[in-house]
Amino acid sequence: MSDEIKWNRTISDVNDGILSNLGKPHPSYYIAWGAAIVCLLIGAFTWGMEMAVGVGITGKTSPVYWGVLITDFVFWVGIGHAGTLISAILFLFRAKWRNTVNRSAEAMTVFAVITAGLFPLIHMGRFWFGSYWIMPLPNTNNLWANYRSPLAWDVFAISTYLTISLLFWYMGMVPDLASIRDRVKGLRRGIYGILCFGWRGTAKQWHHYEAGYGFLAALATPLVLSVHSIVSWDFAMSIQPGWHTTIFPPYFVAGAILSGCAMVYTLLVPIRKMFRMEEFIRPEHLEACIKLTLLTSSIVFYAYAVEFFVAWYSGNIYEWAVFEKRAVGSYAFYFWVMTFCNCIFPLMWWSKRIRNNIPVSMFICILVNVGMWFERYNIIVSSLVEDFLPGSWGHFQPTLGDIALSLGSFGWFMFWFLIFCRYFPIVSMSELKLIMPKPLSKKH
Amino acid sequence: MKRPGGILVIYKYLDQVTDAMVAIRGRNDFKDHEVFSPTSYHEIEEALDASPSQVRWFTLSGALTGTLTGFGLGLWVDYDWPQVVGGKLPGLYSLPSYVILGFELTILFGGLMTILGMLVMCRLPNIKQRILDVRFTDDRFGIFVPNVAMDGEQATLLKQFGAEEIRQIESA
Questions:
Q1: Residues in Cβ contact with A414 at an 8 Å cutoff, skipping those fewer than 6 apart
Q2: Better-scored residue on pLDDT, B95 or A232
Q3: Structural domains in chain B (count)
């Protein structure tokens, strides 16, 4: 699609334009960073309280032992999906628009997965007792982790995803870090020189780099699809009504990509303004991101419908009872927020006028993010709260502690993301040059 | 080790450098020349006419090691501490349970080895290597020919393709 874009810039403008973020940032940057630190401190204080007082400051209570914190975990893993989708899958499909957004989407992925990785620890309370069981080594009793359990698979899936996403992101940045090295002086030159490993941009280096990048993309592609499938098995492999369904892996993957793309858009719009990158991250690129969000929203809509149909058609009264309660029971509010935010509001994007209206699309993307958080909350809480034993049925209500920890995770995520935006190239310069008109002499 | 000097030719346009690359390809009087580009243009890759990158063998070996490690881990744990399911005898190993371990470690080891392969084949890290011209990571192309003087016929030939600048690089 970028072939049709009439660029007002040449490749000679790319480095100057993109690396303007290394200069003095817009005051709004400091406001955003300050807000992130405030949220982060609230979260850190609450986590400290949780360690001192106990997990009781969260809403976890029998029978809901997976409450808001596991909701946050699944939410952040989901956010982390768009980065590698955009960088790996769209790279293999040669979707050129991804070249302008992949770097920030990959950074978002890395920080989102790190944020997600904190939640199993926060969930445990005094994590120094519990964290051993995430990776039970050293093993002195010959009692091994149960590798037939989806929770053990999840540890492998998330840590592999984080490692590969981090490497993919960093390797993609090496030529751009060399560009920074070549324009700064003094100590900074030395630091960026080390960070780029001494990259020189020879044709042979590009030859091996391109091959390696392609292989990494090929490896990361099934990984993207597998990670949220495995997260979904944390639920689907139990016998809990509302969880025990084979539709979960594709449903979770589509939902993850939906929330990830919506988050990419939510982050890109202020960033392109803050760092004056409108000439490079063009409305056409943002529209392509919206189209992908609309596609995944449609898949999620279909999955919601099929989930209900299967619950009814299976004739399993326990399964149907859960779905009935989700729609019209005490958790109906969460269900309908989820449905409207993820399925109904995105339908407005069928109109090209709305797709290209950046403030309206940004608002819908924020609604999608809210909806996707509610989706995870709906799945986790409404299934657990009324299990097979009516005597243990209860009610779950998020506490102030839950809300503060969730807010803290947003602060933590934004804190790192904004640091990245300040000191690293937000757009992949070497890849952006590839989709701009080639520098050819007049004879062509 | 002392790095040899030579001539550095700078081009503004992609087609100029690719034409020059094709003209000097395989010639003994341009031995060990290096081409610089701000990004990975396929035209340069074609003009380079290099054999497929050896990075693929790193990826393959890493991925296979990962597959074996994943399945091996699951099976060994099963052997070390049998988990009797449904009254089945220990020693009846169920491979499908370990597909996830095998899959994840295939990706993990394959990815790590790919990075290692890229670094080895690109001869990185090499922080002390001299940067010949800072514009090569911006918008200019270049060809460096070692052990050649400005007044040599190599310089004359490379100039013909529309060189923007040509200069002598001293050995360092």
A1: A32, A33, A35, A36, A39
A2: A232
A3: 2
Do B47 and B18 form a contact (C-beta atoms < 8 A)? yes
Query: How high is the ipTM of this complex?
Result: 0.94
- B70 and B99 part of one domain: yes
Q: Kindly state the percentage of chain B with pLDDT values over 90.
A: 65
Bridge partners of B146? B6
In a domain, B50, yes or no: no
The CATH number for B25's domain is 3.30.70
The pLDDT value recorded for residue A145 is 78
| Euclidean distance between CA atoms A210 and A171, whole angstroms | 11
Which residues on chain A are in Cβ contact (under 8 Å) with B124?
Answer: 197-199, 205
Say if B84 falls within a structural domain.
yes
Contact B53 A431 (CB under 8 A): no
CB pair distance less than 8 Å for A182 and B81: no
B73 lies in the same domain as B24: no
Distance between CA atoms of B45 and A443, rounded to whole angstroms?
21
| The two three-digit tokens of residue A393, written as one number | 């049925």
CA distance A212 to chain B (A): 6
Q: Say which DSSP state B8 is in.
A: E
The nearest alpha carbon in chain B to A180 belongs to B137
Among B74, B115, B168, which residue's Cα sits nearest to residue A144? B74
B25 shares its domain with B82: no
Same domain, B104 and B74: yes
- CB spacing of A167 vs B112 below 8 angstroms: yes
Smallest CA–CA distance, residue A16 to chain B, in Å, is: 9
> Which is nearest to A411 in space by CA: A5, A20, A76?
A76
- Cβ of B122 and A204 within 8 Å? yes
Residue of A162, A188, A219, A443 to mutate, testing the B interface (most B Cβ within 10 Å of its Cβ)? A219
Confidence of residue B83 (pLDDT cuts 50, 70, 90): confident
Q: Could you list the residue range(s) of the whole structural domain that residue B31 is in?
A: 6-38+139-169
Q: What domains can you pick out in chain A, each with its CATH number?
A: 2-128+145-435 (1.20.1630.10)
Over residues B69-90, the mean pLDDT reads 83
On whether residue B162 sits in a domain, the answer given is yes
**Interface touch A209/B44, C-beta < 8 Å:** no
CB–CB of A427/A103 below 8 Å? yes
B-proximal residues of A, 116-145, CB under 8 Å: 142-145
> Among B21, B103, B131, whose Cβ lies nearest the Cβ of A182?
B131
Burial A131-154, CB ≥16 within 10 A → b, else e: eeebeeeeeeeeebbebbebebbb
pLDDT beneath 50: ranges in chain A? 1-2
